[in-house]
Amino acid sequence: MTLRTAALVAGALGVLLLIAGLIADAQRPPADIEAEATLDTAVVVYSPEMVAFAGDNTLGVDGEGDVVALTARPVDADAWLAERDATEVTGLPEWETLSTAPYEVAEPEPTASPSVSPSASPSPEPSPSVSPSGEEAEPVDILALTSSDHWREQWSGVDRVAVPAAQVPPGETLVVVSRDGSPLAATDMTLSREVNDGWITPLIWWGVALTVVGLIALILRFIDTRPWQARAEKWRVGRHGATDDVDPGSRRALRASGDPLPDVTLDHPADNPPATPASPPSTPENPHDQGGRA
Amino acid sequence: MNRRVLGVITGASALLLLTGCVADVPAPVTEAPALEQEAALLEPQSTRVVEETMAEIAAADEAQDSELFTDRVGGNAVTIRKAQYTLAKSDGGPAPVTVPENVQAVYSVGADTWPRTLAAVTEEADEDSTPVVMLWVQDSIDADYQMRGWAHMIPGATIPAMSGTTSGNAQLDVDAEGLQATPEQAMSDYLELLRSGTGSEFNDVFAADSYREQLFASRATLSEAASEAEGEYVDTIQSDIENTYVMGTADGGALVFAPVTIKSAFSVSDGAVEIADEQQPLVSGDIEDVAVYTYVDTLVMYVPAEGSDEQMGVVAADHNLIKISDS
Hints:
By secondary structure, chain A is α+β, with helices and mostly antiparallel strands. Chain A has helices at residues 3-26, 48-54, 74-81, 200-221, 226-242, 251-257, 287-291, and strands at residues 32-38, 43-46, 58-72, 87-94, 97-102, 154-164, 173-178, 186-192. In chain A, a hairpin with a 2-residue loop joins strand 4 (87-94) and strand 5 (97-102).
């Protein structure tokens, strides 16, 4: 394989690397993302576990009108939510998706009583939950309908409320409601994630470099360089001709004449002590060095 | 063809590389962090409850209209205040009892069920009065905490140590064990003491208190007066266990908040009972030879833990006349 062929192959590889790098750069995943979920209830719940999961990130809820976020003890939130339709954010199955489920009130702790009524089994018949009348209900303030004594912290906003999860006291449930009872639109959680994309930029530069090499080889393929080569050959021959004279007595002259090269000992002869820092520099004994490359 | 395949391979390779450069979704948190403040009401919440209560009382006092007690004041507190307004509206009638606005301590429960209570001790209204112990009750999650009763502290009595908001105080039942007596039994014994007087076997069981001393003194005076008129004086004392609430204390004891109804019947056989002018506004019906004074009292009793050296006793009580009738 000639140098030119190798350069062309490198150029082709460079083009591939460059394309791959540019595609990767265009599709580079963002480090800061927003996981979302759509909602269809007026109330959304983040359990203490989900609030802890959110850590230092922000929880947001979009709706129409006043949107209010409140915290409460889990048992109080359960009691308040018991008779309301609510959606619970249950997890983060994918980076950009929040999973949700209808909120279910936590079952009370089982008692030690051995007697359990068999009638406690749930009815298999679904109960109708949607009014067939189709009439629009009067907007009400669902927070004002009941006591607000159990709410501990509160944030509010118009069309959206965002709550830093770190500001929710540990162990408390976060409940977000649309004050007028209209369904909330969506909830989101801003997240920061680690993206290992440090290889993309070097890949692009390597691709550029190899492509340039290949491009040069390709250009040279279509240019007649023989005059330049002949001129270079002539210059090289001329330069060699000027330097063919061999210094008599040099190692090169000895090799050319077939004479053996002199042995060189590293030991100092007794009558020639090693130089000390105070003594003048010793004269090299090697006659070939004396011949020098002056 | 080859270029297209190469392009596809290159693009797919880039995307494959990208999929590997994002960290996995973090693992879910499966265990809820511990609640730092377990009390049902924290200070900002209880402050709001107290302030709204005081505002409602102030508005009602200004109008001397008990109908203005809607959200934050209820139960016997309305009945008692209504009688005080009735007296205050008469010429020269006494002003309603002052309920100090500033509280010096608030006690919340850490209960998970209902009803729940909140108690507060106010500052003294003036030099001649003692702090007032107030009781709020929340019947359900949807109901506001409502002030149901108050009572002035017995001179010399102290409120036992109570738990803070970290854990809250226990909400106990009237039949709670682990005390010197169940709250229900303690109240029953104390009412028996009130009925029987100082000769009761329970006189030494309970610490001395000015409430029963005044009741006994009044009874002695009125009994003597009735006897002189060949009549009699009889106190009928009943508790209201259904509306009695018990809050645990930090030392394992309990504070019992009990409404008590006392009907004092004064009768004469040779004439008519004369009602004092300042009490006339509370008269209901025609009073002739019998006058029944109805009092709705609020008692706050401390029941120490079982094995404690402390003595049971009433720490706060008020004697509130609400009606005078002929039966």
